Amino acid sequence: MAIGVDCEAHLELGFGYAQQQDVVARGYVTWRYLGPLHVLRNYELFQVLAGRGHGGPEIKPISKYRGLPPDATAEVRQASEKVGGDADSHSWVTLKELLDYDWELKVTEEGVIDLSDAAVREWYEKADRLGPPPSYEEVGYTKVPPPRNKQVVTWTHPLRVDVQDFLTGVLPYLEYLAVTKPQHLRIVFWFIP
Prior knowledge:
Helix content: 25-40%
Number of domains: 2
Largest sheet: 4 strands, antiparallel
Order of helices and strands: EHEHHEHEHEEHHE
Low-confidence stretches: none
Number of strands: 7
Mean pLDDT: 86
């Protein structure tokens, strides 16, 4: 049995004369279905897309759930109907919104380190803890105190580190598809617990 949440996503490309984001959102564009988009399970990315993830409070979503676009293509509507009640939190974002997002935002992580490991101790003794330690364990939800030789620590890094696959693999592909109109390419998605 799988534990977690997945994201089902579909691409739509808009045709028309609208140039501004708000005009596009009001439906002055005709949308065409491009196909499904495979999005790996990444809770920080899900937090950016619609506030559905495990990202910290510093990760603000592009938008809370918008629902299916009123002008969604028939293919997207059919895909949504196919998953029915198994899916929730339907929404959409445009490529422009993704490109405008602050991927350099600093996020805080927490983990348990073993101070008997020399490389970990060296990282721990540094004044600035940018980036993760060489090795660590997840803290988990229970927050059980660690054994004596271990320590709970926090560090910061840019959000882009957590969503690197999306930024280096998916985003360039989306830019290629959109050519010069990033507001005319949208990802319509929902989450499946």
